[in-house]
Amino acid sequence: LILENDLHKALDNDELFLEYQPQIDLQTGRITGVEALIRWQHPEKGWISPGTFIPIAEESGLIIPIGQWVLETACYQVKLWEKEGLPPLKVAVNLSLGQLFQQDLVEMVQEVLVKTELEPQCLQLEITESMTINIDQMTTALRNLKELGITIAIDDFGTGYSSLSYLKDFSIDCLKIDRSFVQKIQSNSTDEALVAMIISMAKHLQLNVVAEGIEEVEQLAYLMASNCETVQGYLFSKPIQPKLLQENFHEIQ
Ligand code: G
Ligand code: G
Ligand code: MN
Ligand code: NA
């Protein structure tokens, strides 16, 4: 409850900020997008990880105003980079379950796009497989979002226990292979096979694919050989503050 009260204040007191992790297209070697990741610098308690405070935000309902702030900040930042001469980037923003089923989600996203003047195709929303539990509700929410012209990615793909049938009904554009598989490339042949299979399946379904959590050059080599489109991980860059990303843009890619 203490943390919940603090989190409430955090939003008003500018204690929350976003870091951005580049996504690299393996064909061109260029940064084509970024994932926005929330951070909290507590005035007394110091750095608190999103793994700790996002669940509190979800339980308390604070995820709604926080989620709106994240979306607006991320869209504004990408538009700003564009104005400052960086090539156009796509920004991926994580959505919580509570946001997906928020009544006015579509209106909120639409308002943010209008306000920030970001082209809808530059925005990707990330949901997880666990959100596919209520397929009907999910389908409706995603279809409405898609009408705005934005894209949808499945985050942590491969870790959920859901059926894959949602892939044919849902308006999914991209699969993000969970880092637990990527990190076992070279040490576990089953994980290697799973990575190759997900990439191949994505191609057959005409979905984009992003491999997450890539840290080693050996993993990169395997992903290139498997025709993976896009990668994201510490090998290229950790999530970093916008200024740093802008300054190092050409070194990262
Ligand atoms: O960046 P990091 O590894 O610390 O993120 C930890 C977790 O927090 C990840 O699962 C990530 O998806 C989640 N997360 C980070 N930023 C956001 C956000 O803006 N909204 C939501 N809902 N989750 C986030
Ligand atoms: O759940 P989601 O995929 O949204 O969370 C992304 C999380 O993965 C972030 O917390 C980010 O900091 C973390 N991350 C990104 N790249 C790497 C990586 O190469 N290695 C590890 N261990 N974590 C990573
Ligand atoms: Mn994510
Ligand atoms: Na993930």
From TrEMBL:
EAL domain ranges (all copies): 1-253
Source organism of the structure: Lysinibacillus contaminans
Coiled coil regions in record: none
Highest taxon of source: Bacteria
Protein name: Diguanylate cyclase
Keywords: Membrane, Transmembrane, Transmembrane helix
Signal peptide: none
Keyword Cytoplasm on entry: no
